[in-house]
Structures are given as structure tokens and as C-alpha cells.
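Researcher: We're teaching a course module on how sequence relates to structure. For the next exercise, students receive a sequence and then see the predicted structure as C-alpha cells, so they can try to spot secondary structure elements on their own. Here is the exercise chain.
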Amino acid sequence: MYEDKKIILFDGTSLDGWAKRDGTPADWILEDGIMTVSHGDIVSKVTYGDALLHVEFREPDMPDEKGQGKGNSGVYVHGCYEIQVLDSYGVAKPTDGDCSAIYNMYAPLTNACKPAMEWQTYDILIRAPRFGLLGKVKENGIISVFQNGLPVHNNAILPRATPGGVTDKPVAEGPLMLQDHGNPVSFRNIWVLKLD
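Model: And here is the predicted structure for the students to work with:
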């Protein structure tokens, strides 16, 4: 029913739908239908407000690393709310810095991670913040996140932006940003369904 309304952000054929923060063309590594982090953060040219997002990612195998040095990246909804990407497989009690956390704000409800080198999914439902006539937030954004089909955030309220995005304030509409944190995290099959 919704197939004809999905906007494909990355289908494995090109990076034409993405740019660096400064607007220059994205130049991540593109091989075999997969893009892998390199040369800075990238931002989708498509923006959205209320939406359902789908992102598939794969952690590199980095057995000698730990914590924030192990497969670190981020999926920034609206360019300002980071869903952490990290190899947190086996972490007994994930924190607000582990995989699928809303970074520095909410820990995931459960650890839904797969081992490194296995493909994982985020399905993200975002209700954008509502703004009053003077531009002030009158209703905070709300987000629900499923990792590998399991709920990790259920209608979490977003009172502020998280660090490191393209803006430090909540917005009514924004892009998807994928973070370069120096680790070779890979992505494929990224789409958005606008619900405005």
C-alpha cells in the first residue's frame, strides 16, 4: 500500500542523494551496493517532518576495540537526533551511549544488537516537534525505534537536539545525517516514508 510513497535515499547504485555538510558531493566508499563511512558526515538531500525511516547497517569486526571506539557511527533523524550506531553486541545493560541509544539522552529498552559483520535494521517513527507562531516549540518531537524488529524506544519525548548534528535545535523538517566517526561502518537500503 505504501510502496509507491517511499522515497529511496540509498539503493546501492549511487550517492547522488547525499552531500557532505558543506554541500559538496558525498564521497563515501561505494562497492557492491553498499556505502561505507569515509571522508566526513553525509546528509540526505531529501528532508522530511513526520516520517517512517528504514536504515540497514553493518558493524565492522574490531575485536581489539571497546566502547565508543568499536564501530562508531550515528543515524541523525532530522539531522539533530542521533540514534547511536555502535558494536554493543553482548553488552548486558546498555547505556545512553550504546547502540540504538538516543545518544546522551535515552538508553535503549533492550540490547537488540547482532554480532559484528551481520546486517542490522533500524525502523524509526518520528513525529516532528510542533512550533507556535513565534517559532518556539509548543510540542516536543516524539520518536519510536525498532532495532532488528524489536522495540528499543517507545514514544520517547525529544526535549532537545543531541550533540554533533547539522543543527543544535529541534526542527519541523530536516534531513537524515549519517556520521563519520572514523570507523568503517557500512549502510544499505535506506528509505523514508513521509507521514505529513
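Model: If you want an answer key for the exercise: Residues 58 and 118 are 6 Å apart (CA to CA). The chain has no helices and 15 strands.
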